[in-house]
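Q: Give me a protein?
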Amino acid sequence: MVDALEDFYAIIPAGGIGSRLWPLSRADAPKFLHDLTGSGTSLLRQTWDRLAPLAGDQRIMVVTGRAHRLAVEQQLPGVEDHNVVLESEPKDSTAAIGLAAAILVRREPDVVVGSFAADHVIGDARGFRRSVREAVAAARAGYVTTIGITPTEPAIGFGYIHADGDALGIEGAVTAHAVTGFVEKPDLDTARSYVEQGTYLWNAGMFIARADVLLAEIGRTNPKLLAEIEQLADAWDTSARGAVVDAVWPTLEKIAIDYTVAEPAAAAGRMAVIPGDFDWDDVGDFASLTKLVSGGRTNNLAVLGDNARILADSSTGIVVSHSQRLISLIGVEDIVVVDTPDALLVTTSANAQRVKSVVDALKISGRDDVL
């Protein structure tokens, strides 16, 4: 491909069930396997299509659960068998991304890796690729690099990157600045102040670095976890893989890469950020999905689902229909209705974040049959 970066390898962590999108998203059919944009392709496939011009089809690694292997390979027929890394159980992003980086650095010592979630929506693929190219240039210079999204509103559902550090003057990465810190999801007043200051970006969870640099950062904060990741990677392309995975994987600490790499690297001055002006959405709940499907038109009723049967009068919000039921709405505003053959959710956009508590309650009650 003309635009491919020769030393770049993309990693797609495809895990998590998207519990705030239950009952649409389930353990056996997680968010990344769904078409949530009406494009006819899943979020995973859209992620692949964004990355292929940068890395090439043969340089994209997917990290996913064993249960999802068949679905992933069906949706991504171009993925190489040796580029599918299967997790026996979820161990969060440090293990997933760290293992992929450790496998790749053994195959290609100077490789630059970039991790991009399988379940995000980006409309401006060209703008995204411009930012990734800058991030790769910063990574070549030795920085752990992230792409922060320029906020369009004081969102409280995202973490923020504080990007008031110096411009780094890196050739090929003219917009790169030092990261001075990461902030968890703020309250509304704090989010407003971040947007007004203009030095805060949404944290989209994209990380780009030389593989050896990324692994060194993990080792600084969690040497035991790094040693276990290295043990797995040593065996990965050998006949010993199965036995080593069975012995080591259950012992891995479950911890996000934000805590093992991003925050410590920022504190030490080793973190760079590229401001991304492209549209981005992590589709984190049904309020976000409503905006996405309706194009931001709050006076409409958005409908998602093949052959949905909906009658609506003076109603707004979203209906997701995965059954053959006729759904009738009269005079309800900002409603969320998700209808599946074995579970029905009715809430409002304002309460969309609370859907996760339903999932937690179902787990506690042992109702795994609907999870």
Observations:
- The CA atoms of residues 336 and 347 lie 5 Å apart.
- The chain has eleven helices and 16 strands.
- The mean pLDDT is 94.
- The longest helix spans residues 92-107.
